[in-house]
Every structure is written in C-alpha cells, then in structure tokens.
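# nightly structure sweep
# worker-07 picked up a monomer target from the shared queue
# config: single-sequence mode, recycle default, output format = structure tokens
# input follows
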Amino acid sequence: MVATLTALEAAALIASSRVEVIDVRDYDEFNAGQLPEARAVPLDLLRADTDAELHGTKAGVLFVCARGSRSLSAAKMAERLGYENVYSLDGGTSAWAAAGLPIVAGQRHAA
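# output follows
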C-alpha cells in the first residue's frame, strides 16, 4: 500500500533511511525549486518506462510533485509494478515549503 506522508514525516524518512526522492514534475517546475535530495523524472517519462527510471532505487522511493496528485499517481504505478516501500508527499513541494523545509534550485535530472 502506498503511504502518503506529511512534509515532516517525509523529512524524517529522508533523514533516517535510504529512500530515493523522485520529483515527477516537469523540468521547468523542478528547476524552479525542489527538495534537496530529489532527482527529476517527469511523470510522462516515468509512465513511458517505469522500470528503467526506477532501476537502482534504494530501499524505498518517495514521489514528489507540486501538490501531491501526480506523486500519488506515480506511487500507485510503482506499487502495481511490485515496488515496495513506496511513498507520496501529501501536498507536494508546496506543503514542504510551508513546513519551513529547504527548497533548492538547480538541475539533477535522471541519467
């Protein structure tokens, strides 16, 4: 089952484990500001080849978007493909910033 996390729960998960943070917004949104640990894999790219984009993920994966809708879709897709420890950030980067957590600008796109 996909776990939906608050910003503070997600921050604690990131700090305490080897979760991969994947931002499913488009590159322009991502470059405007993202979670410090995130890498960009736009939802359309993830839908096109989920296994290739998630290959090599760590113990779990936390999906992030602007408000939580796209990340929940991505998390459910990964879960259907058999990935375990799948999380979605409720409220997305908006909730993360509202909680006073750091947002960084820059590029860390999928390889």
